């Protein structure tokens, strides 16, 4: 039996870090086209995010917007949206994104957007999900790939993966042993599911939902 051919998608990467680099590579390896990368500005020493370096090497357009919206009105910046929409992406992929992305961008592509979050949603919405998984003594950790909406980590879920939490687990052990490697492969799998028209979109239940604040590194 022959394997199902995966139709190639035009993908915009919105995010940062080595996690985004590996997701970029995996998506590209599966035959999809990376049409643009939107990442954070260079740091104070002029160092750019690694996903920007990779994209530049590949000849892929890179955008480093400080903000996507006007601070005063919270309206989408027209110049930013024009540069984004000109790429004609079929899908936005958000492997790790620390910026606020306007709803106009999230919903613009044909297949909208997918985002990685390191918890089993609807539990532990917010920016320090792995920390709170450990702080609250959860017996299971995991991640979700979901379709972001106007809420905080509240959109329909495409897929989830989980792993037991052991007494000696730390943020680093959970991330390095599970969240990072399994998350990369799951993001690529999610793109392929969307491309083949087989991706689910399961609404998050209200039961079991929680939101916790960002933890500082000193805590």
TrEMBL record:
GO terms for molecular function: methionyl-tRNA formyltransferase activity. Residues 10-190 form the Formyl transferase N-terminal domain. It comes from the Eukaryota. GO terms for cellular component: cytosol. Pfam families: Formyl_trans_N. SUPFAM superfamilies: Formyltransferase (SSF53328). PANTHER family: METHIONYL-TRNA FORMYLTRANSFERASE (PTHR11138), METHIONYL-TRNA FORMYLTRANSFERASE, MITOCHONDRIAL (PTHR11138:SF5). This is 10-formyltetrahydrofolate dehydrogenase. It comes from Caligus rogercresseyi.
